[in-house]
DNA sequence: GCTTGCAGCCTCTAGACAGCATGTC
DNA sequence: CTAGAGGCTGCAAGC
């Protein structure tokens, strides 16, 4: 455990200058280890260490010393868009050396985004995987890959993409960063990298359990037991930490419980929760957020002015950001969250309370599984704010002494489980093959098999999947050719759209054999694909929904119970989106379907992408009868409008609400806006009216 | 006859990635 | 296959 002053390292002067500017005088033990293992000489490393141990700086040093000595380009890959933005901002500091930093992810591209102009590009795994399929020329200039949060390899859904990207990065140079994993030697070996592993944390972490004792609760740490009074372990411990001046992050396993725990805490806080000026300001911000539903704003407001908040993916992005910032600024004292906050941007607290170590598993009815050690470590790792807390505390709530012992042994004393390949299923593996063929343009079966042998799968499993995959892709007309495999036009389109081949097959099979139908039928088909959004359907909705389908659907009602549920869930998505494009008020949609604004947003985004994809698949298959419907549908889904507003929403700054106002007052096209600027101003306000008139003029000029 | 209390049954359950077009010597 | 909270119903005791 040693710290190394940066002057003692063999660092380029320019690097030292910037480090000092960032306020970094010495490297911490993890960073020192990485440097001693050859980081600056371009050695391939797999660094595994706890969250918050300063891995980002390792990546920065790796990238910069690589660019300084070898030129070329570097890519920094993260699993989350939020992390991509965060790393982008940190890497910006290095632009002083003359390197340009850009970023690209699904919803954001660097403003003057032509990526070939950048030296360092920050992105997500999926986006890089997708880019590889298009194979832009600049991508071949990239010879240094940082694979951040590499333990996502173990994630059932996202893992296959991480692995695909790693397989290609392996053929160049890479630096992989991961949370602590137990089989790091095996993974390092696979990556052909040197393992660097430590448990060092900037703020020490104390892990324990909370058990109900005779008259009070006991918080048991390895060498100390604290007695606290109260009726509820979470509330009691939260109050205890608050009284000692710390902030608390509580994790619950459902949104409902996150909300009710937040309420209970706030009503037990007494004098600890007097609203102050700062909190009232945060409250005002919440009231004024534009992207949220009114119910969720109201509920959150009541809590936030008392210094408490709940946080989950049902909340709008704007709302979540306000809460996170206010917590970081130490205004909000307690956040009760679902696992959203376990990964993602750094949001530490003095104490973390893990309220549940079980989680409902939707695949197996009535079965509640224990969360993985890795997940526990991610949550516990949020404890301890550098600079504020001497020590972080993480406690798990258990019911009795027997459970306490078990939990202590499993979560606190054991290393996280090993990570392993998630490519071992048809859907993931066939996508992987499709992606490789797409970027290679043409490839022999032997070479394709070489790629498969590069996966983390056992050789015989990989071999089985290549053989089956090639046959399947050929049978379904994604690929053609004998000596050299190439993508068909259909296959290439599917690869570029980045949809799952099974999604494409659903489009192809049903659209080919069916006649035109109504919007709901198309939306249902789109939602029913494996890439479609999933929503939960309550029992009462289930009966209603089936009767409600207004026209013949493309998919017949499945016999199988699970499939039937998917069928109904897709129908619910279709109804939601149908309301959206019929301009039903957002608050009405939210309460009608029991979803949050964050849910609605993500359903819309996914359906936008998939209606676009459906249109393109229909187009490439020349299914004339269907593609015009899907085309219009996609435009309407994007903005949530009826067809008559499509001209207006093309104007930058005009969404479904403004477009409707304008239209109802006789302004129906961009030209009308330009001709009636005064009227537009009186309808939408001076400032906005003016801006929109300008945009409308620009739009017309652009079209001409 | 109406209210209140409570046992027991029923219902429900986390998160978040991807297309496109974009600019210009 | 290893759950638990909250809502709802219906029955019985209490007034």
TrEMBL record:
GO biological process, alphabetically ordered: DNA repair
Catalytic activity: Couples ATP hydrolysis with the unwinding of duplex DNA by translocating in the 3'-5' direction; ATP + H2O = ADP + phosphate + H(+)
EC number in record: 5.6.2.4
Amino-acid positions noted as binding ATP in the UniProt annotation, renumbered to this chain: 31
Keyword annotations of the record: ATP-binding, DNA damage, DNA repair, DNA-binding, Helicase, Hydrolase, Isomerase, Nucleotide-binding
EC top class named in words: isomerase
Function statement: DNA-dependent ATPase and 3'-5' DNA helicase that may be involved in repair of stalled replication forks.
Family: Belongs to the helicase family. Hel308 subfamily.
Subunit details: Monomer.
Protein name: ATP-dependent DNA helicase Hel308
Primary gene name: hel308
């Amino acid at each position: 455990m040693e710290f190394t002053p940066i002057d003692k390292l063999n660092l380029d002067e320019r690097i030292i200058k910037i480090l000092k500017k960032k306020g970094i005088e010495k490297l911490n033990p993890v960073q020192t280890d990485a440097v001693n293992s050859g980081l600056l000489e371009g050695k391939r490393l797999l660094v595994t260490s706890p969250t918050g141990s300063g891995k980002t700086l390792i990546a920065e040093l790796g990238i910069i010393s690589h660019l300084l000595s070898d030129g070329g380009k570097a890519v920094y890959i993260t699993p989350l868009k939020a992390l991509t933005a965060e790393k982008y901002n940190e890497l910006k500091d290095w632009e002083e050396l003359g390197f340009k930093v850009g970023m690209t992810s699904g919803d954001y591209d660097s403003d003057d985004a032509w990526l070939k102009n950048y030296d360092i590009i920050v992105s997500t795994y999926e986006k890089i995987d997708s880019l590889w399929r298009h194979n832009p020329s600049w991508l071949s200039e990239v010879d240094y890959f940082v694979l951040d949060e590499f333990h996502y390899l173990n994630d059932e859904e996202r893992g296959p993409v991480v692995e695909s990207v790693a397989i290609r990065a392996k053929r160049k140079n890479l630096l992989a960063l991961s949370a602590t994993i137990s089989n790091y030697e095996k993974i390092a070996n696979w990556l052909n990298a040197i393992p660097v592993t430590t448990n060092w944390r900037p703020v020490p972490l104390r892990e324990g359990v909370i058990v109900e004792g005779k008259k009070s609760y006991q918080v048991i740490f390895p060498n100390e037991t604290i007695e606290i009074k109260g009726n509820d372990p979470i509330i009691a411990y939260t109050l205890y930490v608050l009284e000692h001046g710390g902030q608390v992050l509580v994790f619950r396993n459902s949104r409902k419980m996150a909300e009710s725990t937040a309420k209970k805490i706030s009503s037990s806080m007494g004098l600890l929760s007097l609203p102050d000026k700062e909190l009232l300001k945060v409250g005002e911000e919440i009231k004024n957020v534009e992207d949220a539903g009114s119910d969720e704003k109201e509920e959150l407001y009541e809590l936030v002015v008392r210094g408490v908040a709940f946080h989950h993916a049902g909340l709008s992005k704007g709302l979540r950001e306000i809460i996170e910032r206010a917590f970081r600024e130490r205004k909000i004292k307690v956040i009760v969250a679902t696992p959203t906050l376990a990964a993602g941007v750094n949001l530490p607290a003095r104490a973390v309370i893990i309220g549940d170590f079980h989680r409902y598993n939707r695949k197996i009815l009535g079965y509640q599984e224990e969360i993985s050690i890795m997940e526990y470590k991610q949550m516990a790792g949020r404890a301890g704010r550098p600079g504020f807390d001497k020590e972080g505390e993480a406690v798990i709530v258990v019911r009795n002494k027997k459970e306490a012992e078990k939990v202590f042994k499993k979560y606190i004393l054991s290393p996280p489980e090993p990570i392993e390949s998630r490519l071992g299923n048809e859907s993931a593996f066939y996508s992987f093959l499709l992606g490789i063929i797409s970027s290679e343009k043409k490839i022999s079966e032997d070479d394709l098999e070489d790629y498969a042998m590069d996966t983390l799968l056992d050789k015989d499993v990989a071999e089985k999947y290549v053989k089956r995959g090639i046959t399947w892709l050929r049978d379904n007309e994604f690929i053609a050719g004998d000596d050299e495999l190439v993508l068909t036009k259909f296959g290439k389109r599917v690869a570029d759209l980045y949809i799952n081949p099974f999604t494409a097959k659903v489009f192809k099979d049903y659209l080919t054999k069916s006649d035109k139908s109504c919007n709901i039928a198309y939306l249902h088909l789109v939602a029913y694909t494996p890439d479609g959004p999933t929503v939960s359907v309550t029992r009462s909705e289930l009966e209603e929904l089936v009767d409600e389908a207004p026209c013949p659907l493309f998919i017949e009602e499945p016999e199988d119970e699970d499939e039937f549920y998917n069928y109904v869930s897709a129908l619910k998505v279709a109804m939601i989106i149908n309301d959206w494009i019929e301009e039903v008020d957002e608050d009405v949609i939210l309460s009608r379907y029991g979803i949050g604004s964050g849910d609605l947003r993500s359903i819309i985004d996914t359906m936008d992408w998939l209606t676009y994809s459906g249109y393109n698949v229909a187009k490439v298959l020349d299914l004339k009868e269907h593609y015009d419907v899907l085309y219009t549908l996609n435009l309407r889904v994007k903005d949530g409008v009826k067809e008559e507003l499509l001209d207006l929403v093309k104007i930058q700054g005009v969404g479904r609400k403004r477009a409707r106002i304008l239209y109802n007052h006789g302004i129906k096209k961009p030209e009308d806006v330009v001709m009636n600027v005064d009227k537009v101003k009186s309808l939408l306000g001076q400032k906005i009216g003016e801006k929109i008139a300008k945009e409308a003029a620009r739009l017309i000029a652009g079209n001409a």
